Amino acid sequence: MKIHLKRITIRGIVTVIAALCIFLGSFFNYEDFLSILFGCILGGIYGAGAAGIYLVIKTAKFLLFSSNLEYLTLFSGSFLAALVSGLILGSPMPFEKKLGVAQIFKDLIAILASYIILCLFFFFAKGKENLIINLPSLFLKAAATLPLTIILRPIAGTQLYGSNEEEADELLESLRKKDN
Fold this sequence. Notes:
The chain is mainly alpha-helical. The chain has helices spanning 2-25, 31-65, 69-89, 101-126, 128-161, 164-179. Helix 2 crosses helix 3 (69-89) and helix 2 crosses helix 5. The longest helix is centred in the N-terminal third of the chain and has 35 residues, at 31-65. The chain is globular, with a radius of gyration of 19 Å.
C-alpha cells in the first residue's frame, strides 16, 4: 500500500501544481490552453481537477470583487473543455505508445472537441466578431497542444501511475505477512 499511497499523493500534488500553472498562465491569457493541455496530459480526473481548483478560485474572486460574468463563462468553458479532453483520452498509462497512429488520432479528436467547446463558450460570452478575431490564437494554441500532449502524456503515465507490477508485488508481500 505504500507505493499506492505514494502515487495518489504524487497525483494530488501534480494536480495542485497544474492548477498553479493555470493560475500563472491566466496573467498571459493562457488559462484555456493550459486547462486543455493538462486535461489531455493528466486525464479527466486530475486534469479537470486542476482546472476545477482554478475555477473555484475564479468563482470566489468573481463573487467577491467583480461583476464580469463573461470572464467566468469563458473559464467555465475552459474547465468543460479540459474535462472533455481528459474523458476522451482517459488517464495516462505507462504502456501508452508515444507515436502510435491510433493514439495520435485519439489525441487529435480530444483536442479538436475541446477547442470546439471553447469556441462555443467564447461565441456565447463575447459574440461572433470577437470569436473571429481570436480564432487564429485559438488555432495556434490547439496546434501547440497536440505535440505537447504526444510528448508529455507517456511521461505523465509513467510518473503518475508507474508499473502495476510494483503495486502487485507490494500487495502480495503484505498478504504473505498476514498469513505468517
